[in-house]
Amino acid sequence: MKPNRLNRINSLLKEVISEVIQRDVQNPHVNTFVSVTRVETSADLHHAKVYISLIGSLEEKEKIVVALQTAAGFVAVNAAHKVKLRYFPNLIFKLDTAIEEHMKIQKILSDIEKERGSRPNIEP
Q1: Between 121 and 13, residue with greater pLDDT
Q2: pTM, whole model, 2 decimals?
């Protein structure tokens, strides 16, 4: 499959799955602060990894991922009504840790800058 078409499908699925989670999922563990950050669909369109981001402790995040994985069939059926594809992919929900990793890197870089600023400038 052409990469451009796959990118368009991923973008469309991201929007539709996000809408279904916000409006249709009635699980008490799934709150409205769940954001779909990206979708990676396989080339044959049979599987899709749905990366989500949310605010909370690691334990709460894991509960929400499990709740979404349990509701994956429901989400797929409702999303399939809004998107017409020959095969609607099997959804696998994963926690997107990119934001936390970015924050850790930023903290390390700021700590390095503070350390540099606290050292006296010694010129030979």
Answers
A1: 13
A2: 0.78
